Amino acid sequence: MASEKLYMESIDACYLREFKAQVTAVDDTSVTLDKTLFYPLGGGQNWDTGTISWDGGNLAVTEVRGRGDVQHFVGEDHGLSIGDSVEGEIDWQRRHAHMRMHTAQHLVSGLVYEMYDGARTVGNQIHANRSRIDFNPVKFTDEMIEELFHKANELVESNIEVTDSIMTRDEINAIMPPDRTNMDLLPISVKELRVIRIGDNLDLCPCAGTHVRALGEIGEMEFLGKKNKGKGTTRVSYTLDGCES
Ligand SMILES: [Zn+2]
Fold it and tell me: How far is the CA of 3 from the centre of ligand 1 (A)?
């Protein structure tokens, strides 16, 4: 059975740092847990790090992968077996940076679509120190970038609320164009999705990542650079106040 993803339960659950779980599978370098707060690599967002501890030991979790069974990589000779009870703790500084970066990505993706003729988000990479979003089709002038980040920071300062809910495909498509939410790329078999909403539909986007409760928590966004990736795609990089390293 797939690992229960505790961080998915609500935006509030993204703020939890510790949990108890049982080992459901092991291999040479990793353990799989029945439930976890560790976010596995996926959806453009990098994995959480932290520790797993138990009676008589603890190990650093250096990598987390798997969208069904979540594998926590702890290195060789971990000594854990199926059925063992463990406690997990995530590295909060890294997680919180991902939450802020990811929410910033939703905000900027929505703004680019609205401000620049429906330019789509075709890729993103969320990291703790810097993140990037690929847009298509669009060619940003310096003035456009300035306008975009000015608008984004204005909205961050307004501290608009971020909420999550489960919605049907039809409900989502009735509110947002499918090319803005990338709903048109999802298999038709997917009927219900967890969506992240900024304010009163300032942005609405299906997403399984981790996010903050309000835009103010993102802090000041800083443009780092843009790069032409060919075929009308431009990559925009940014960081946030306190995340630069
Ligand atoms: Zn997201």
Answer: 20
> What is the second-level CATH architecture of the domain 4-90?
Beta Barrel (2.40)
Residue-level pLDDT, tens digit, the chain, 245 residues: 799 999 999 999 999 999 999 999 999 999 999 999 999 999 999 999 999 999 989 999 999 999 899 999 999 999 999 999 999 999 999 999 999 999 999 999 999 999 999 999 999 999 999 999 999 999 999 999 999 999 999 999 999 999 999 999 999 999 999 999 999 998 889 899 999 999 999 999 999 999 999 999 999 999 999 999 999 999 999 999 999 87
Q: How far, in Å, from the CA of 144 to the mean position of ligand 1?
A: 24
Distance between Cα 95 and ligand 1 center (Å): 13
Cα–Cα dist 40/162, whole Å: 22
Residues with CB under 5 A from ligand 1 (ion): 102, 207, 209
Q: What is the pTM of this model?
A: 0.97
| Residue of 85, 89, 87, 90 lying closest to 22 (CA atoms) | 85
Q: Quickly name the fold that domain 95-240 has.
A: Threonyl-tRNA Synthetase; Chain A, domain 2 (3.30.980)
